[in-house]
Automatic annotation (TrEMBL):
Membrane-crossing residue ranges in chain numbering: 25-42, 63-82, 88-114
Main localization (coarse): membrane
Name of protein: CidA/LrgA family protein
Organism lineage: Bacteria, Pseudomonadati, Pseudomonadota, Alphaproteobacteria, Hyphomicrobiales
UniProt key word Transmembrane helix: yes
Keywords from the UniProt entry: Cell membrane, Membrane, Transmembrane, Transmembrane helix
Cellular component GO terms held in the UniProt record: plasma membrane
Gene source species: Bradyrhizobium zhengyangense
Subcellular localization(s) per the UniProt record: Cell membrane
InterPro entries per record: LrgA/CidA
Annotated membrane topology: Multi-pass membrane protein
Top-level taxon of origin: Bacteria
Pfam families noted in UniProt: LrgA (PF03788)
Amino acid sequence: MLASLGLILLCQLIGEAITRGFGLLLPGPVVGLLLLLILLLVRDRFAIIAQGPLRNGGVETASRGLLNNLSLLFVPAGVGVVEKLDLIYAHGIAIVLILALSVVVTLLATVLTFRLVSRLFGHEAP
């Protein structure tokens, strides 16, 4: 499991290096996840890649362990919020408005994307 976690973190590090090196607008962990996805997709085709943490579902087991304890990763964010309560009191209304606006924009983008993909594949959206 340690090697699998190391592989996940290595992919994240490489993704971060790629985004900073090429000045991409994507977050480094997203590029790292894409790299990990590519590794998982090609692991059955190449025997060399299938060795180590990629064999026998090692990455899947490690990621399941991370997901089971995901709530622990929110503790630092919660501490950061409590630490900045004075800013929240000062700008609370603006923060709530921006959050509400971002939810609406996200929902609209999701609906428009769904409708576009439905048309492209010949299915009518409900």
